[in-house]
Amino acid sequence: MLNVKEAEARAAALVEAATKAGADAADVLYVGDASTGVQVRLGVLEDIERSEGETIGLRFFIGRKSATISSSDLSGEALAALVERAAAMAKEAPEDPYAGLAPESMLLTGPGVDVDGDDGCDPAPSDLRDRALALEDAARAVPGVTNSEGAGVSAGRSVIALATSHGFCRGYSTSGYSASASVIAGEGAAMQRDYDSHNVRHYADLEPPETIGRRAGERAVRRLDPGKLASGVMPVVFDPRVGGGLVGHLIGAIKGSAIARQTSFLVGREGEAIFPDAITIVDDPHRPRGLRSKPFDGEGLRTAPRKLIESGRLTGWLMDSASARQLGQSPTGHATRGAGGAPGVSATNVALLPGALSPDALIADIRLGLYITELIGHGVNEVTGDYSRGASGFIIENGEIAGAVQEITVAGNLIDMYRTLAAADDLEYRRGVNVPTLRVEGMTVAGA
């Protein structure tokens, strides 16, 4: 795998070769990855894996025609053939009035924001093994845990470099570490499983393995002896582990491509109040050590923090250059891409900001409701906003979380759900999309 400077040079050289071969415009993305992972189960080392790979992708433009081609072979002969094939493909491609590089005036210039995304650490496989063993031991030590699906710890590094024919050439690297365990509680047909995990950019930020393991074990035990919940319309409370999905559906609905295709339930609602006034949702690509932090987007545009929802109101769309041209607007620095295709759109580090109430206070007035810790299936219609998911979790009775329940279905419409959404004060930054405990009124719950 190349280092950042080598990757920048390789990308720039391939852009130069494309322009010499007749490209009116071109860009090149290099992606290199290396990772080591360790898996243990029942106190025994099961597997150690080491993987490395690199891919380089070229977009070759002739007017409004374009072709994209990628290769994992970075030899001179392979890249020369890559350029030749891309040129031939572009000549035969259909015209696309929205195709093209990002506006030159919006490219990142000068020093980018240091997001502290690479700690330079390279832990030994033995360190990863010891951490995984300690993690699983802690989970199995919880009374009631009877079996284990295993624990794993991994470490990796990625190098990204982007070069364009209008002068952009930058790269950066990120490190990443993860730890997880999944265990089983109970016996026979009464068994239940649950897990815990932690993902970080800096190795020093990983939670102690004992903390992750103990939480996994306690979650599994807590799910034992599930009861029944009568069907009805009631408040539903989403644990932070699953509540981020509600914001994820919002992100999908505000992508410029979905708006341009008229395939979003939020078409025509730009600037409208779709959440209560107390709700603000932010996207921060500059969060230090954030899981999705980056100084520039997939087209070389400067990234910047942005409020997606401000005091309940939808502020606009997330756009790459192509969708911005379709909508007659400007790109927002949210382009994302792999080496093998054209840019798409994605948010970065998203957070629904916390409210004023504790989780206990948020549910204190619920006589009968559902607290969800797991969602199943993909029953969300992004065109209409209709929402129907399988769920498991706990009954809320008289303001307190009671026994476990499973095989529940919850249904509603995202527009209606967003209008009644309330947030607790327990926001933690552990994921790409971070939310506190969330409460939604009046959902239809089908019990077992």
Question: How would you describe what is shown here?
Answer:
This protein has 9 helices and 19 strands. It is an alpha+beta fold and 448 residues long. The chain has 2 domains: 4-221, PmbA/TldD superfamily (PmbA/TldD fold), CATH 3.30.2290; 226-448, no CATH class. Strands 3-2-1-4-5-6 form a 6-stranded antiparallel sheet. Strands 7-14-15-16-19 form a 5-stranded mixed β-barrel. Strands 10-9-8-13-18 form a 5-stranded mixed sheet, with helices on one face. Helix 3 packs parallel to helix 4. The chain is globular, with a radius of gyration of 24 Å. One of its GO terms (cellular component) is cytosol. It comes from Allosphingosinicella flava. Residues 122-224 form the Metalloprotease TldD/E central domain. Pfam families: PmbA_TldD_1st, PmbA_TldD_2nd, PmbA_TldD_3rd. InterPro entries: Metalloprtase-TldD/E_C, Metalloprtase-TldD/E_cen_dom, Metalloprtase-TldD/E_N, PmbA, TldD/PmbA_N, TldD/PmbA_sf.
Write the layout of secondary structure elements.
Elements: H1 4-20, E1 25-41, E2 44-62, E3 65-71, H2 76-92, H3 125-140, E4 145-164, E5 169-185, E6 192-200, H4 209-222, E7 232-238, H5 240-253, H6 256-260, E8 281-283, E9 306-310, E10 313-314, H7 321-327, E11 335-336, E12 344-345, E13 350-352, H8 359-363, E14 368-376, E15 386-397, E16 400-413, H9 414-419, E17 422-423, E18 433-434, E19 438-446
Parallel strand pairs: 7-14, 13-18
Antiparallel strand pairs: 1-2, 1-4, 2-3, 4-5, 5-6, 7-19, 8-9, 8-13, 9-10, 11-12, 14-15, 15-16, 16-19, 17-19
Helix pairs in contact: 3-4
